[in-house]
Amino acid sequence: MQQHVLVIENGDNNLEIISRLVRRAGLTPVGATSLMEGRARFAQNTPETFLCAIIAYSLPDAPKGEAIDFAINAYIPTIATTESLDTLIRDKVLERDVVDYIPKENAQNYDYLIRLIARLEKNKSTGVVVVSTNRVQRTRTLSLLERHNFVVYECITASEAMSALSDHKHIRLVITDNTLPDMSGTVFVASLRKAFSKEQLAIMGIAGGQGMLMSAHFIKSGANDFLRIPYCHEEFLCRVMQNVEYIESVEAIRRAANTDYLTGLPNRRHFFYTVTMQHQQLSDEHALALIDLDFFKSINDTHGHDAGDAVLKAVAALIEFYFPDEIISRFGGEEFCIYLPDTPFSEAYERLDDFRKVVEAEAIELPKTTTHITCSIGMSGTTTQRIDNLISDADKQLYAAKNSGRNKVMFDKTAHLAFE
Ligand SMILES: Nc1nc2c(ncn2[C@@H]2O[C@H](COP(=O)(O)OP(=O)(O)OP(=O)(O)O)[C@@H](O)[C@H]2O)c(=O)[nH]1
After folding, report:
1. Any idea where the Response regulatory domain is (predicted)?
2. Is the pTM here over 0.90, yes or no?
3. DSSP characters for 356-389?
4. Residues 204, 246: contact at Cβ < 8 Å?
5. Ligand 1 centroid vs 56 CA: distance in angstroms?
6. For 158-182, how does the pLDDT look when each residue is reduced to its tens digit (9 = 90+)?
7. Averaged over 389-411, what is the pLDDT?
8. Nearest CA to ligand 1 atom 6
9. Which domain CATH number covers 335?
């Protein structure tokens, strides 16, 4: 796990500020205030533990970016810092293969620095597709992305890009030129939008020439963003970061809206969405189970609410383990639901009864002790194709299981005689 950041800054004050930001990003700074000290600190650590380096352009013993060269030659992704936005120094910095450079001018620049270092770790699992027939342009774009640790896919045609997208689920951004051999960039964008919404996949159009309409054309075809070639290094990286962060924020919101906060299982809302989207036509051979923990209130009363939470998490983990291919959910409180598609009722019954025995046998670890719990299960199945009927039928059976002694699986015997 890479988690060190080599920080070589001009003076103790700057070093302290940058080190604090690095710690806020959850990483460990290895600090120095001169190139000589930086070399020594670097030599004391394993090179692979460095996620990146943040290096001042000008240091007392390295006035012209020599410390930046040192870090780049040691194969560490390097972010350069400068005292101010000076175009001459900027050009000197960008002649080198730096990840980015930050003028230490205002708080927003420091905020950008934190986002940038957090991204360097996340980018290792974020895919970006670059589609262009222009080799020089494509290579330049890929090199900038690689410096940011993105996993990059180089494509010349739209169809190559389509297959990269279907093979690699971690792709979050497509950067496409307008002139492609098999279709125009804007037609490609429009066809991508049939498969991926703007919230699932970001698309940036790029095009050269003087035509002012190309950006509008790309955006009307479904692109999230557009950049004119030749683009400036910094603008390109800021836009890439913004587009990828947008997709990730939507994913995070969607995950939070669909997940039960305590157990991490899908919630009731997501359960209905998944069942109805994936199984618009429910099959004849299917089953649904409502699982309710027995006398759960007494766990809370005896061991406290945290212990109750621990029991819910333990049972949720068992459900995930024993029903990895089924649609599972925490319905609320101490009630869980499992939908078993394409499963004969007798097989579903056996699996659920085995699960009931697993729960009964499980010693659940609490902070100061272990405890045991049982569950009651109501099942429904083949008699109906409607999810709301399946749930109300299972609920009646669950009620019956609770009223006839608990710790059992019940189903409507008149409806499932063959299996009885
Ligand atoms: N710790 C904890 N308790 C919860 C949570 N959600 C619901 N509960 C508690 O679960 C308990 C459910 O109690 P009851 O409905 O009486 O059910 P029970 O004690 O399991 O009894 P039976 O279902 O009849 O076997 C209530 O005390 C709720 O406060 C939660 O997220 N965490």
Report:
1. 127-244
2. no
3. HHHHHH--EE-SS-EE---EEEEEE-TT---HHH
4. no
5. 58
6. 999 999 999 999 999 999 999 999 9
7. 96
8. 333
9. 3.30.70.270
Measured by CA distance, the residue closest to atom 14 of ligand 1 is: 297
Whether 115 and 213 share a structural domain: no
Q: Is residue 284 part of a domain?
A: yes
The predicted pLDDT at position 2 comes to 57
Q: Are residues 115 and 28 in the same domain?
A: yes
- Given 60, 87, 121, the domain boundary residue is 121
362 CB under 6 A from ligand 1? no
Instruction: State the DSSP string of 289-308.
Output: EEEEETTHHHHHHHH-HHHH
Kindly give the distance from the C-alpha atom of residue 88 to the centroid of ligand 1, in angstroms, as a whole number. Answer: 67
Specify whether 279 is located in the same domain as 398: yes
Res. 418: pLDDT tops 70 = no
Residue 334 known to be catalytic: yes
- DSSP-derived secondary structure letter, 35: H
* Per-residue exposure over 334-343, b if at least 16 CB sit within 10 Å of its own CB, e if not: bbbbbbbbeb
Strands across the sheet containing 327-332 = 327-332, 335-340, 287-293, 375-380, 409-410
> Which of the listed residues 261, 267, 293, 334 should we mutate to test ligand 1's pocket, taking the one with most ligand atoms within 8 A of CB?
334
Per-residue pLDDT tens for 208-247? Answer: 876 678 899 999 999 999 999 888 888 999 999 999 999 9
The residue range of the domain holding 246 is 126-257
At residue 130, the pLDDT reads 97
- Distance of CA 104 from the midpoint of ligand 1 (Å): 54
Domain boundary among 216, 237, 257: 257
Average pLDDT for the chain: 92
Q: Distance of CA 374 to CAs 175, 192, 409, Å?
A: 54, 50, 11
Of 334, 347, 360, 420, catalytic: 334
pLDDT in tens, 63-106: 999 999 999 999 999 999 998 778 899 889 989 999 998 998 87
Please indicate whether residue 290, judged by its CB atom, sits closer than 6 Å to ligand 1.
Answer: no
98/131 same-domain check: no
User: Residue 294 CA: which ligand 1 atom is closest?
Assistant: 25
Taking the centre of ligand 1 as the mean of its atom positions, its distance from the CA of residue 103, in whole angstroms, is: 56
Q: Tokens 């024993």 label which residue? A: 322
Whole-number pLDDT of residue 354 = 97
* Residue 398 in contact with ligand 1 by CB distance below 6 A: no
| Residue 416 domain flag | no
